[in-house]
Amino acid sequence: MVPVRRHVSLETTTSLLWLVVVLLLVTILAPLGGDAINVGQCGTKTPSHTHQMLDQARMRSLKERTVRTTNDNRKLLWETCHELAQTCNQCVNIPIYVHFLTIPDPDSESGSILPHPQDAFQDYMRGTKTASESDFTTPTTMFSMVQENVNLVNRVYQHTPFRFTLTDDYTITPNRKWTLNGYENQIDIAKELGQGGLESLNVYLFPSLDVKGRSVYGFAPYASFQGRGVGDGVWIDYSTITGGGKLYNDLGYTLAHEIGHWFGLYHTFENSREDGGDPCSDTNKNDWVDDTGHQAAATAERFNCTDFLVDGVELPNTCPDQPLRDPFFNIMNYLDKEDCYAAADVTESLTCGQIERMWMQWNLYRDAANACHEDEMLVDINFAFDSQFWWETTFRLSTVGSVDLIFDSVSDFDAKGAAFFNHTSVDMYLCLPRMEEYEFIVQDSFGDGSSVNPASITVNENLTCTVPADFGFEARIRFTESSLKCDGNLPTTATSPVSTSSTSSFAMPFSTWSGIGCYSTTIAVTTILFFWGSVGH
Fold first, then answer.
1. What is this structure's pTM?
2. Cα 535 from Cα 537, distance rounded (Å)
3. Pairing of strands 474-479, 438-444
4. Where's the Peptidase M43 pregnancy-associated plasma-A domain (predicted)?
């Protein structure tokens, strides 16, 4: 066969050369563009719809309970948020334990390199070794920087009931794998290094953080994630600490932001992209706090914040038809430069609604001895799908007589039109308010049921309802604290009662739990385990 010679015109060659030149210029000059907006600096996972709905159900139950009680230590409803902050018997001191992740280096005097500042560490990692040991920050100096950062955090949170104290016993951990891959190893790191219980704050520092391919400044699993195979604490980049050297972002507000997540605060724009709908609509819940205002997107996605620090310039309002403006200076918003947070009055950092939410989350998930509270019941839902036809089965849980859909497998857990994406069994432990009646519905599109084993629901380890595996197209289980009704005619069985104090023992060993959307690779049939309560790591 005679090869075909393809001719390239001079014009095409010239165009390609110009394209290469432009791409090179963009690559070279991009880092010099100091005003580039940095978006997505936080790696905290957006809670699923299920997570948010269950959390809200527990929050409502807690608020209603406190209305009925006269115990001042449990009171959450105040005339002003400042009253909550200034009432001495509400003040909570939170110890902070800081952990320095380092790179082992037998040639160094200390045996490891604290990977800061960033330029010295990058030079070290390239293998050029031009940076001497004196070019790196010492643990003593870094600890002083962290103390300055904690001082800033206390200023940001000064109108809340919480105060923070940095403990002296910091840890230094020479572990190359952990230091370079903090997100992937967070469970092992927290299990090995974490101190105190859920009421203590552990801060882990790394040279950089990568969350599923995205470089971030920090992240913090929510308190309500506990028991789901997620390491409790705050995880941040060394360079974001006060004086750490991160361009535009080294005043220390990253730590303050991530602590907000640790307390259960969402981003002020959290659900702005929910279902691709209108982020400014009345149905959009944003961060579930009434006084933060609707927000179409993070401020950093649309604006350079310093443009609004000029006298006479009005702050942006991305949802003009809503009564409240964007929470521009709020610590849970994204601004492209931390100077803008510093320029605001500290009262703009957090709203009264956020402060109340922090206090409620503290009582629900951190200052609690048992998995479920006194006005809640422990519910265990367990069943398996046919491993070959898992996509046929869907299920949902809702309250009876209301529109509160607590979870729906079609839309939750990153599912794409089926119950779970390649998940074949479900084992859920939930803490649900007692005053409601609930309905669990499982459906099979082929009409042969789950074809594996029965679906069961157990309430307070006392009442159990079981639906046969071959339930057909649909099976329903209605339940309250004291009764279960299986599909209207199936029997309800009861086992011997247990004391309510035993609820804390339902937490499995920390290492055995999987979070929502986490896949087990050690067994053939994947199991979803998630627990809605407070357990320690």
1. 0.72
2. 7
3. antiparallel
4. 247-358
Give the tokens for residue 64.
């209603």
Phi and psi at residue 116, to the nearest 5°: -160, 140
| Contact present, 246 and 240 (Cβ < 8 Å) | yes
Spatial contact of 97 and 402, defined as CB atoms under 8 Å apart: no
Q: 124 with 113: CB under 8 angstroms?
A: yes
From the number of C-beta atoms within 10 Å of its C-beta (0-12, 13-18, 19+), residue 57 rates as: buried
Which residue in the block uniquely carries the two structure tokens 């009345």? 282
d(CA 118, CA 247): 11
Digits of tens for pLDDT over the chain (537 positions)?
443 333 434 454 455 555 544 444 434 333 333 333 344 589 988 877 767 877 887 888 777 766 655 444 444 444 445 565 555 445 789 999 999 999 999 888 889 999 999 999 998 888 766 667 889 999 999 999 999 999 999 999 988 889 999 999 899 999 999 999 999 999 899 999 999 988 999 999 999 999 888 899 999 988 776 545 467 899 999 999 999 999 999 999 999 999 999 999 999 998 876 656 788 988 888 899 999 999 999 999 999 999 999 999 999 999 999 999 999 999 999 999 999 999 988 888 999 899 989 988 988 888 765 567 778 888 888 877 776 776 788 888 888 876 677 777 766 544 333 334 445 667 777 788 887 889 988 888 888 877 666 778 888 888 888 888 888 888 888 998 888 887 643 433 433 222 333 222 222 222 222 222 222 222 222 333 334 433 333
The torsion angle over the Cα atoms of residues 467, 527, 270 and 198, rounded to 10 degrees, is 100
* Longest Cα separation, the chain: 94
